[in-house]
Amino acid sequence: MLTQLNHLTLAVSDLDRAFRFYVDLLGAKPHARWDQGAYLSIGSLWLCLSLDQAPPSASYTHYAFTVADYAQAVQTLRQAGVAEWKVNLSEGASLYFLDPDGHKLEIHDGDMASRLASCRTHPYAGMVFFD
């Protein structure tokens, strides 16, 4: 069935503001833009911004990204005044922050291998590993 993530589409309430946030602050590469949306990329990830007034979910759903220089990225985001929505309690350094429309984002200094290695030492309640 599924083989990989194809793209993420984020509903945004102000396309100009969201475009500047993702391109100018986060470094996404713009590919196309129109009255109701924009196509960007972050590495191999295809990101679509779509003009929509519906608010994002209040759940733990969020989008995590890898950055080249974690410390510099944290400094840049905090200097820009992004709102932080969660304190990291798991392996690897993470900054959880909101985009201008309240979408929950994360920059994470780690990967699944480092997370699983940590979990093997300190497993979550009821955790089972599949090797």
TrEMBL record:
<dbReference type="InterPro" id="IPR004360">
    <property type="entry name" value="Glyas_Fos-R_dOase_dom"/>
</dbReference>
<dbReference type="GO" id="GO:0004364">
    <property type="term" value="F:glutathione transferase activity"/>
</dbReference>
<dbReference type="InterPro" id="IPR029068">
    <property type="entry name" value="Glyas_Bleomycin-R_OHBP_Dase"/>
</dbReference>
<dbReference type="Pfam" id="PF00903">
    <property type="entry name" value="Glyoxalase"/>
</dbReference>
<dbReference type="InterPro" id="IPR037523">
    <property type="entry name" value="VOC_core"/>
</dbReference>
<protein>
    <submittedName>
        <fullName>Fosfomycin resistance glutathione transferase</fullName>
        <ecNumber>2.5.1.18</ecNumber>
    </submittedName>
</protein>
<dbReference type="InterPro" id="IPR050383">
    <property type="entry name" value="GlyoxalaseI/FosfomycinResist"/>
</dbReference>
<keyword id="KW-0808">Transferase</keyword>
<feature type="domain" description="VOC">
    <location>
        <begin position="4"/>
        <end position="110"/>
    </location>
</feature>
